[in-house]
Amino acid sequence: MDITYSAPSAIEYISLRLKTGMGTKDLSKTEIALKHSLFIVSLWDNDKLIGFGRIVGDQGITYVVSDIMVDPNYQRKGLGKVIMREIDSYLNKNTDENAYVCLIANKPADKLYYQFDFEYVDPKSCGMKRKQIKE
User: Fold this and answer.
1) In the chain, is it the N or the C terminus that has fewer CB atoms within a 10 Å radius of its CB?
2) Domain locations in the chain?
């Protein structure tokens, strides 16, 4: 397995999303999104993308951990932890105690994130997302 810190192609990224059940995304918007990521971790088995994670944000206050995914054929081998260790290292080097670092976790992946000092925000707060309506 190789670790790189650059974006895979948009097609490779979308393919991994589909394999992991995260659904597809528009190709041109994916290219833009990957280009504007603050930090990317890609895991490779030869030339096959098997894991991915990234951080998006403003490089000052707000950082969002996003798109953590591992190919189902490679799950249960600690690769999610490998990705999160790299993300954790980036955050330790590039944020301070006033930064707001967040993510939305699918269960049971919340157990992984908990190991990297993420905590639930309830009962005072809750996660929300905006419903996007196409006009």
Assistant:
1) C
2) 2-114
